[in-house]
Structure formats: structure tokens, C-alpha cells
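Build the 3D complex.
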Amino acid sequence: MNIVEIRDLVKNYQLDTTVVPALRGVSLHIEEGDFLSIVGPSGSGKTTLLNIIGCIDEATSGSVRFGGEETTSLSDRARTELRLHRIGFIFQSFNLIPVLNVVENVEFPLLLQRGVSRRMARDRAMELVEAVGLDEHTRHRPGELSGGQRQRVAIARALATRPDLVLADEPTANLDSVTGEQILNLMRDLNHTRGTTFIFSTHDPQVLTYARRVVRVRDGLMAGEE
Amino acid sequence: MRLLLSLCGRNLMRHRGRSLVVGIILFFGAMVMTVGNGVLSGMELGLRENIREGFLGDVVIASDEQESDNVLMGVMGKGIARLDRADEISSLLEGDPQVQAFAPVGKNMAMVLNEEDGFPSFAYLLGVDWESYRKVFPNRLQALEGAREPQGSSWVLLPATARDMAFEQMGVWFVPKPGEVVDSTLTETAKERRSQLRVRDEMVLMGFSGENTTSDVRLPIQGVVRYPALNKIWGWFAIVDIESYRRSQGYLAASEQVTLDSGRAALMEMGDTDLDDLFGSKLPTLPGAALRTGEIDSNALRTASAAWNLILVRLHSAEGADQAASRLDSSLKAAGLPARAIVWNKAAGPIGGMAVLIKGALFVFVALLFVVAAIIVMNTLSMAAMERSAEIGMMRAIGASRNFIRLLFAGETALLAILFGGAGILAGALAVTVLRSMNLSTDNDFLQMAYGGETFQPVLSLLDWGLAVLQLAGTSVTALIYPMGQAARITPLEAIQRD
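Done.
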């Protein structure tokens, strides 16, 4: 079953008087439980594609269906709700809340949800912190962690709300190769054990060996699929 | 809520420098606004007490024919209308439960005649029945020289301010009977002329109004007095016994009332330019019985043995003077009496106006401070929103709503307002208490007006505390609206792009 269906997706950016095309008619289907990598050089449109799938950016034209629901026509509030309940994000530069410690960062999206008790959120967060191997750093703040540890926190946070889809934009770009490998292993394990769909973008050829499916993007167009 | 408070508190600690800047502005803003409120209240209270207790009481009853509500200091020479049926009005006041005491008074201007062949001077006269006057204004007068309590049927108590002015204009130094000069009360100019000082212990007063000048009366000075405060205002009023006042103003006793026959009326009506006609053929023919006693209704001659201008009313409580005046006014109208009730601050005319002016200036100052504080805080918060766009955008990306971001900003500002602004209000209250205990005094007229008396007595009522909290909340909310909206408009995409 497809969790994401994209048809003829176009995205143009307006830079002063110039229209810059980022996506020029991308069509793509992503199945539930997939571990998919979007590959392409810088400026190819992979981050734009991820942002539109994650309801962070809006399409110029085309259709994006998430779990059967058309997302391009959703209001800002509805897209926020969708991001909160059904999508997890892992950003390139970790993007944790600096004043919260590890476990608080992980439980943060849970506490934004209605009907989740503090206790329930804490238990879930602790479970995930252990799953990403940071149970000895629960009280540390992001500033006290290494890059790899911060990315693990970001992964745990992305999974906290048990989302249908986790989007990771170049998750290993700021990490050394060993740590990057560990992060990819962790994501793949979580994909296997929890069945969560992962889509990550990269331009690192070594990362591709981890992906179950690779989609190539070039100049805003689909350039192939493996 | 706990998450929000925790985030707010930690964000404030993380951005200590900025929090401190905003906090200090809120602290000083709240402190100055609180002190301002205290000064405004103290001034209002002081003026109210001074005017109420010193001169006008809470409510003034004036004639229906009195044009202006301002009965304290009108246009020079413009008389206060005569108050008719004062006895009936007094009966009505005696039956009123809110009225504590009242004193009918005569109030108009008089010329202080110079018996030394020089310039005259002027004074306001307050004609009183001493017994009723002292009931309404007990122990307000301080005797500088002579008696504070006048004796006998004919007298004047001269305030030091009026004496100093008379000396400047006439070169005569007035002293109480028996005419001894007290060196310590001499003005600098009087001291310089001490050896040639022309001293008088009697005053010759001639009442005048817009209609005419009247008769002059010679009165023994029984005391030179002063008020506890605002002598530059009250000190213009020489207090005289009511009968002398009436004589000076030409208010005739009933037995003195006359009706003129047509011939004498024609004589009386001849203008100054017609005086030559007295020696010509136009001289009116006078009948044998020239003057007859009897009733008259002409305003040219003032009537009634109990002629007054005003009744000064003291209430049991100063609170609700407005309502009391309004109620008394209705009672007077209902009883068909030709009078109206005026609340003290309206009756005080320019004094009340000056108070409003000073109060307005202070209010504008406090409002400006409010605006300046709000702008600085708004600018700082706005910069904070921009600096934190990556963090805010990330929160939005993982599901935080715009309202959550708004609440985050509002919570941080509210915490600063409560901590620093609250401390500012307490510091302001402390400053008010210290200023009050210092009993700062002044002889400066303008400052006396601003103080509401001779000493600076700022005071914070419960209302002022509430007002300070409202002002602080107002400043914070005003400062917050724009940056809060700015932060809520930050999109996750913007944050990612900036990152």
C-alpha cells in the first residue's frame, strides 16, 4: 500500500523577478515500510521534494497524497496537525531545542499532542532514548552531546509520536563517516523493527548501500530508480 | 502548560542578557509609573483636602443667577450673585443626613483704600458668621500676629499674603491692633524701609463689583493669619465679619430699603455725561416726600438682612461629593429654591483647572514613559524573534502550532513582567513611602500646587496599585503584540532556509 503518492509535482521559487524551477513534474509512489533514499547533486530538488512531502513547503502544482489524503490543499493548521501526528523529521543540522535535555527533546512532540499525559510521554521518550543508545545521557542538553549523539536524539524525537513516515534530509551530512554509518544502521534497524517508513535524501554514494530503494533526482526531474 | 512554563523559564535564562535588558526596562518603567501614580494621587488628595478643609468645603451652594460654577476666583471685579432665601436653603441643608456642617458666606472683591494719598490695593473679601465658619473650617487659620479668633462685631483677619501685596502696592504695613510691628514677619522690602514704615492697624475697604463701587468701611485688624498650605491662593481672602462685608458691598438691611418716586428715580438714572443737566432746565421736579420705606424688587438695591453669596457645605465623608452635589441640587430644585449645588473642584475654577493641567502634564509624562518602554521592549523582543527563527521554525516543523509559539513569547514576556515589573512596582511603592516620610516642603507656588499642599505627600491607594499593574500589563501586551505575531509567522521552511 502506498503511503505517499506524488503526481506531476511542480515547484517554482520566485527570486525577485526570476522564476527558479526546483521541481519540474515529479511523480513518485512510496510504499508503507519503505526505506527509500532520494539521491542527487546539490540543487537537484531533493530537499524541496522532502519538504513538500513533509508539508513544510507548498507545491506550485501537482498532487501529493499522504495516506490517501490530498495535502496540497490543506490549511496551515491541518498541515501542522499532520506533521505533529503522522510525520517525523530529522534535519541535517540536528535542530534540537537547546534548553531541553535529551529526554525532554524526545518527549516534546508528544507533549504537544492532546490527550498524552506527561507520564506517558516520559515513558515513551525513555524507551526511545534507550533504543537509540543514549540512556546514559538523558539529562544532557544538546550542547553537551557530540554530533552523532544529537542526531540520535533527533531520530528518537522523530519516532516519538509513532509517525507513519520519517523524513530525513541529509542526516549524515554533518557527521564523520563512522558516526554516519552508525546513524544509518540505527535508522535501518528501526525501519525493520518498527516498520516505520523512512525517506532520506543524500548525495553521498556510500549511503546508497543502506537504502532498499533509491530514487535519483536531477534538475528537478526524476532521473531514475533502483 | 508545564512544558510551556519550563521552556519560557529556560529560554529566559539562556538569553540572560536580553532578558535582563527587557527586565530592567520593565523594572524602571513600572517603578516610575508607580511613583507617578502616587504623585498624582497625592496631589489630588492634597488639593482636595486643602480646598475642602481650607476653603470651599465639599459642596458650594450658589445662586441660580450665578453665571459660572467657578465661584473661587472669577474675572476681577465680576461679582458673585446674591443668594436669596438663604434661610430656607439652610433648613434644607440641616435636614440632610450627609451634611456635617455648613457656613453661609459673602464673597466678593474690595478695594483697600490708601489713606496716605497713594495707590489703593485690592483684596477678596470673605464675609463670615464666625461661629458657623469655624464649625466648617475648624483650626485652619494660624495666627502670625494678633488673634486667630476675632472678638466683637466689626473686624478683619488679614492673611499675610494679602498684607504683603498691599504693602507692595500701597506702601502701608498692616498690623493687628494695637499697631505693634513684629520684625520677624516683615518682608525683605519692609525690613529695608523699617525706619520709615507706615503702619496701620485699621483697613478701609470699599466693596466693588461689575455694577458699581459701594460704600467704604473702616475695620480694625484683629489678626494677621496664614493657612497651612496654598497661601498664595487662600491668602488673597481677607476674612471680615458679615455685617461689615454687607456694608462694604452695599447690601442694605430691610429697614434701609427704599422705593424711589419717579423724580428721584430719574435723578438716579442720570448718567455721568448728564451731570451738567443738574444745572440746567432738564432737572427733574422732585415731589415733597422724596424717600419712602417699603418693599422693592430691583436688583440695583441688594435686599434682605440675611444677604449672602454662597453656602459652603462640609459633608460627613469626602467620598461621593459629586453624587452629594447632584442630589442636593435636585433637592434645591424640588423645593423651588433659586440655588444650585456645585461640587468643590468645579467651584474651585482655575485652581481645579490648574490641578487638572499639572495632573495632565504628569499623566502625559507617564504615558510617554509607557510608550517609550513599550517601544524598547518591542524592539528587543522583535530582534529575539528574528534571532530565534531557526528554533521557532524547527518547533513549527515538528508540530508546534502558531498559538504555541505565541504563548511561548507571551509566557516569556509575562514572566519578565511579573518578576521585574512586579519588583518595579514594589520599588515604586517603597519610593513613594520614602518620599512621603521625607515631608518635603516648598514655598514655591507651582510646586505647592503640584504637591497639593505645602508638603510633598505622594500616596498609593488600592486603585493606584491596580493601575500600576494595569499599566505594566498594558506596556507588556503592547510591546508583545508585534513580535509575537512576527514569531508566529515564522514558517518551518524559513527556518530551514536560514539554517
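Confidence is low (pLDDT under 50) at residues 283-305 of chain B.
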